[in-house]
Amino acid sequence: MSKELISAIADMREEEAIQLVKEMLEQGVKPAAILDTAREAMDIIGQRYEKGVYFLPELMLAGEMMTQIAEILKPKLAESPEVRRLGKVLIGTVKGDIHDIGKNIVVFMLDANGFEVLDLGVDIPPEKFVEAIRDFQPQVVGLSGFLTLAFDSMKETVDAIRAAGLRDQVKIMIGGGQVNEHVSQYVGADAYGKDAVAGVSLTKKWIGA
User: Cα(101)–Cα(107) distance, rounded to whole angstroms?
Assistant: First the structure.
C-alpha cells in the first residue's frame, strides 16, 4: 500500500491519496511510516519539478495534499514517540512585502521533508525575526520577498540578526521573485533558493539531514 500512496501523491490523485492514508491508519500502519511514505512522494514531485515535468500549480497541489495528510496524522503523531524532526526552520516574508504564495510552498515542502517550521507570516520587521530566533532557536532562517523593495528589508533583517549577536547561530537563505546570487551577497545571506525545492535542498545540506 505504501507504493500505492507514493504513486497517488506523486501523480496528483488527491482523493485517492487521502483515502489511502485513512485506510493505512485503520490497518495499523504507524503514522510516522505513512509520513515517511508521503515524503518519498514529495521527493519524486521535487525531482519532476526540477526536470520541468511539474510546475508551480503541481507544487501548490502537493502542498495542499501534504497539509491534509498532516491534519489526518497529527492526532496520531502526537501519541507516537518515534517521530523525529530533522531540525528547525524559521521563515517569514520581510517588512514591506505581503506576498506569501512562494513562502507557503516552501513551508509545505519543509514540513513534508521532516523539518519543524515556524512561519511568521508576511510584512515582518527585523526585530520580530530577532525575537523569534531567540525564542524558537532555529538552525536555518528563511527570508522571503517578491518585490525588489524587499531587498533592503532583507539586508536590514540580516544586519539586525548580526547586531543581536545571533548571526553565527543560524544559516540564512533568501528567496522570492527577483532574488539571485547578487541579491544574496548584498543582503548578507548564506545562499538563495531559486524555488521551494532548492530551499529544501539547502536546508538539508546545512542541517546535515
Answer: 10
The contacts of residue 55 (CB under 8 Å, 6+ apart) are 49
pTM of the model: 0.72
What cell was used for 123? 510584512
Q: Which CATH class, in words, describes the domain spanning 88-207?
A: alpha beta
CATH 1.10.1240.10 domain extents, the chain: 2-78
CA distance 143 to 118: 12
* pLDDT at position 82 over 60: no
- pLDDT given at position 84: 64
pLDDT for 81: 56
Q: Where does 2-78 sit in CATH, by number? A: 1.10.1240.10
Mean pLDDT of 75-101: 82
Between the two ends of the chain, the Cα-to-Cα distance in Å is 26
d(CA 45, CA 62): 8
Numbered ranges of CATH 3.40.50.280 in the chain = 88-207
How would you label 83-112 residue by residue, b for 16+ Cβ within 10 Å and e otherwise? Answer: beebbbbbbbbbbbbebbebbbbbbbbbbb
Q: What average pLDDT does the chain have?
A: 91
C-alpha cell at 15: 482523493
